Amino acid sequence: MATQISTSRQAVHPLHGLLLAFPIALFTTALLSDITYLKSAEIQWSNFSAWSITGALVFGAPVLLWAAIGLFRRRHDPGRSRALIYFLLVLLMWIAGLINAFKHSQDAWSSVGTAGLLLSIASALAALAAGWIAYSGQRIVQ
To answer: How far apart are CA 64 and CA 103, in angstroms?
Structure first.
């Protein structure tokens, strides 16, 4: 009789996963509302994007802290590179989001532009990539 070994493991702690879901959704929402603002010039889309970025930063801060602690706890683990990549993606997501929040605090006509759109793309892609790693089924943080 053959035994089957399950390779399915919990990727992240459930609370960590719940907190990570907010920046993924909100940074992506901010990107889409920035694109809509550039096409319509309706000021409310810029406001909506700024609110989404702020919410993503609020929920992203504990995710960043959790990733840093998880990286520190795995300092002697051979699989540390995956945790390092995850931490760097979350750090990029949060820093790009913070700079983007400052950019969106400017006058509405200058808030999005090329720089604001590039920052929204960077933070959304970093959030999606971090989510991909976190939910992939391999443990990255304890």
So the answer is: 21
**Cβ neighbours around 121 below 10 Å, total:** 16
* Cβ atoms of 23 and 60 closer than 8 Å: yes
Enumerate the domain spans of the chain. 14-134
Alpha-carbon dihedral of residues 63, 23, 78, 70, nearest 10 degrees? 0
Angle between helix 80-104 and helix 43-73 axes, rounded to 10 deg:
150
Compute the C-alpha angle 52/92/60, nearest 5°: 45
Over the stretch 74-94, which tens digit does the pLDDT of each residue have? 777 766 788 888 899 999 999
- Residue appearing with tokens 């969106």: 104
